[in-house]
Design goal:
The protein is an alpha/beta fold and 177 residues long. The chain has 7 helices and 7 strands; from the N terminus they run ββαααββααβαββα. Strands 5-6-7 form a 3-stranded parallel sheet, with helices on one face. The protein has a two-stranded antiparallel ribbon with strand order 1-2. Strand 5, helix 6 (132-142) and strand 6 form a beta-alpha-beta unit. Helix 1 (19-34) crosses helix 4 (79-100), helix 2 crosses helix 3 and helix 5 crosses helix 6. It is globular, with a radius of gyration of 18 Å. It starts with a strand and ends with a helix.
Length: 177
């Protein structure tokens, strides 16, 4: 099944984006929020796709002005690619919320997710998120330990306090020992 959304390319012409390209753009967005550099292998691992399939898509997304690839093979969303990826990400979150009947930080959202994990033990769980309001507050409301992934080192001026705070995923190992 193919679902198309319409976007404008660099020349201002309307173009369609396939579901596969949507998945790639969303994966690049999500990965770029979690790690400093995104490579093709990261996208493949994230989505479970093969490298040859992604190579074709990368070429097309570069031609369409959605991504750029550096000499070190770092994949970056362009301004227009970021807009499209954020729109896709938001749409997918809205669809998920509609299917679940709630969204983060609602306790109902977390209860639904926990009910779908076999042998889930709340005492062994840790919510790791980069959003104080949706991830951390949601985890707190659901009674789950929380860990703020603060890649940019921003100061937390809210009243929301996570159990842990890390600045890189490598620090997670110490927490989970």
């Amino acid at each position: 099944m193919y679902i198309f959304i319409k976007i404008m390319n660099r020349e201002g012409e309307q173009m369609a984006v396939t579901e596969a390209v949507e998945n790639y753009l969303e994966a690049i967005l999500v990965l770029s929020r979690k790690q400093p550099d995104v490579h093709a292998v990261d996208v493949c691992n994230h989505l479970g796709y093969s490298r040859p399939t992604l190579s074709v898509a990368i070429k097309q997304m570069k031609e369409d002005g959605l991504i750029s690839v550096s000499g070190e093979n770092h994949i970056t969303l362009t301004e227009s690619g970021l807009k499209v990826a954020e729109r896709i990400y938001e749409r997918h979150n809205v669809i998920a919320a509609m299917l679940i009947g709630s969204q983060k930080p609602s306790v109902d959202f977390f209860n639904y997710v926990m009910s779908k994990i076999s042998n889930f033990n709340i005492r062994e769980a840790l919510i790791i998120g980069d959003s104080l309001v949706s991830d951390i507050l949601g985890g707190i409301n659901a009674g789950i330990d929380t860990c703020l992934l603060n890649l940019n080192g921003k100061t937390n001026n809210t009243g929301i306090k996570s159990d842990y705070e890390i600045n890189s995923l490598e620090e997670l190992y110490e927490i989970c020992k």
